[in-house]
Amino acid sequence: MxxxxxxxxIGGSAVRDFEQxxxxxxxxxxxxxxxxxxxxxxxxLRACGIGPGDEVITTPFTFFATGEAIAAVGATxxxxxxxxxxxxxxxxxxxxxxxxxxxxxLPVHIxxxxxxMDAISAVAKQHNLVVIEDAAQAIGCAYHGMHIGATADISxxxxxxxxxxxxxxxxxxxxxxxxxxxxxxxALKEHGAGEIGVQAKELLEGESQPHAVLQSTxxxxxxxxxxxxxxxxxxxxxxxxxxxxSIKLRHLxxxxxxxxxxxxxxxNGLTDQVVVPRVVGEGVHCWHQYxxxxxxxxxxxxxxxxxxxxxxxxxxxxxxxxxxxxxxxxQAGVLPQAERAAKETVCLPIFPELDTSExxxxxxxxxxxxxxxx
Length: 374
Ligand SMILES: Cc1ncc(COP(=O)(O)O)c(C=O)c1O
Hints:
By secondary structure, this protein is α/β, with parallel strands linked by helices. 38% of the residues lie in helices and 12% in strands.
């Protein structure tokens, strides 16, 4: 790798190339890399001017970062329930959750299942709300023939190592078709600095007073370089991650095809004593996780672990019941589908390197558990 002797570890052509490759892959006009999926969400919310006093409608059945990002910008997460079939936001509940403070809807394509974007976009349009999609688990998903990432006002990706497109460290990206949002994202991710910071401030606050430093006649330095117009972040994808991600992106379609094969094998082979996941309505699943449901979750997990099979239980505590969100005052029982999912889900191993005999061993083991226990 010629990158190390070049010392260009931050920014540079590797990052620009990867952003360009993601634009081409997703078919979106703008892609801004950043340090993580969590940062992608924070940047997206800030780029829409969302902050204290605003509400954002989202799902409680997700990784903590979704709700955390909303709270981190000072806004209030408003949790609505999920659909039984695919664990995504129940779009029929959005309207009832809208108040004069609502600014955005934040659906999560959880486990790689595309949300009901038609219904979500229709409500958003009717109420003049922004749609920010959490696509952290959804690279390679599609909806009406478009990649997820081109299906909302703003889309947020994570390149956490276990994701379908995983880095060898942290990484994230925001994509959008709105030029104004792009400008603000670019400014916010690097301290609100530079000429782009001035433009972003104008877009966010309508302010266009030239700063005194720009009127200086001393042109021996770039007057914008240390001019900070917004309180932003240090949120950059490093060049090593970008290089790795560029290489892996070329293989993503084949990796995702293998995930589909594994998912189909599970669905065809598993006993009907578990509820297998299914794709609801329009959309192509990218099988970030293969999640079954059973009332015997704990016993099944113990059994599979004893057989050397690593299983996950995402997400055992829905966000509205997390201690960090106790200030919002949600009580147990208010979002029954999310709470039920939290008690019933078991994630079976799914990754491209899993071979056919291993998949069969996992199916046989799950089926054996139910044979022995019934
Ligand atoms: C649904 C969801 N949202 C947000 C994130 C946050 O991404 P990151 O870990 O890259 O900050 C993740 C992944 O970890 C995720 O799965």
